[in-house]
Amino acid sequence: MANPTLTIFANFRLDSEERFLRMKDSFLSFKDIDAERWIINIRGRHKVEAGRFLEAQLGSRLALYQLESPEGWFHDSRIMAATIETEYVFFWVEDHLCLRPDKISPTLREMQEKDLDLLTYSFCHKGQARAYYGNDDIVPGEELDWFEHTVSNNPVIQRNIEGGVRLVSCISIMKRSLFNKVLFENKKFIWPKETPFDFEVSPTETQFLPLKRGLPKHELFASMDDDNAVPGTSLISRGLYPDRVRGPRLTATASEPQSATGTPPTASHPLIVLINGYRVGQPTLPTGTAYVAQALENAEIHYEVCDVNITPDEQIVEVIKKQNPAYIGLGTMTFEVGKNYRLLQTLKKALPGVVVILGGPHAIAAGRDIFQECPAVDFVIRGEGEEALVGLLQGVSLKDIPGLLSRDPRLDGSRCRLTTYRSPNIGDSISANTGQP
Is residue 435 scored above 60 in pLDDT? Predict the structure, then answer.
């Protein structure tokens, strides 16, 4: 029997910095599982940087959407579903963290062997979730147990928990046929149309039965902050995830998007930190960095600048780690790449989700060789960097960005323009960011 094929599906909104951070943590916890495609729609004010983060991590395996039609979540998800061709679909909920990535593939293989329809991968409730299905028909297995959930045994199952057990939950791995059946069902909608909650099948919607249901033997995932009616089961409650902010403060208002600390985004973490990697022994702001900083300023993109001539490399790592940017940009000469590569490698280890962009004269000279020279680099910009960097940060299609090289050559941008000297208009804002007169 051939190995089961899997698509990761998600359609979520990231309207606060905390939600963006949680999405990155969730992704990094299971990014190495064997999935053919990641079909992801991102909405909200952090959709650009979240999309760039996933593109840098997944390359051609990612089908990225930014759909937000007036018709709502179901309409947009149906457009995405038309491209799914795999046997199984993993419905990714971005605030759940994978605890056992090593068990995902063997669990999926056993689902295929037993011809199971679905398995709920999170909210195990300290093992109590298995008891909800406590009937005599459960068949033991290696990675999971399973049973057939039918119209006849459904009343018994529903009496085991107040409010009943959903027949299909979002936090599930399921057959594509079941995923499409739920998604395209002509059902009555209860929740706001921009939310996914009507995807979940209520205890009384027995038209979806029978279902061959798997019960995992391991806690595959856990919610970061939702105890789900069983106190002490979320990762924050267990002390396994930082309690930066909970509940309603995670959702930004339409009038004033909020960061995790409740302040406007421009007062929070920078989107990008520019590192001056030209090691000349005294504080400096190279012309190229000045041009790029001015372009970011004009585009109203929040940035900071670090100078290796002011701050030693080991201190730069701590400074940038506290700033927690989505991107790091560094310009370098060829004779300085050794030290700068080591700095980027250390930064990537400290911030595994950050997207690293390299520019400067060495980028023009070395081009795609940089990806072999330094595994930490995600993108290279050859030639003038202002338009390319702003385009990358604002969500322009990668193939339309001049001079951009990606680890996946199929995503490379258009041909670059080489730099000619111009006098930069750097303004007071750059002096404020660098601390230089």
Answer: no
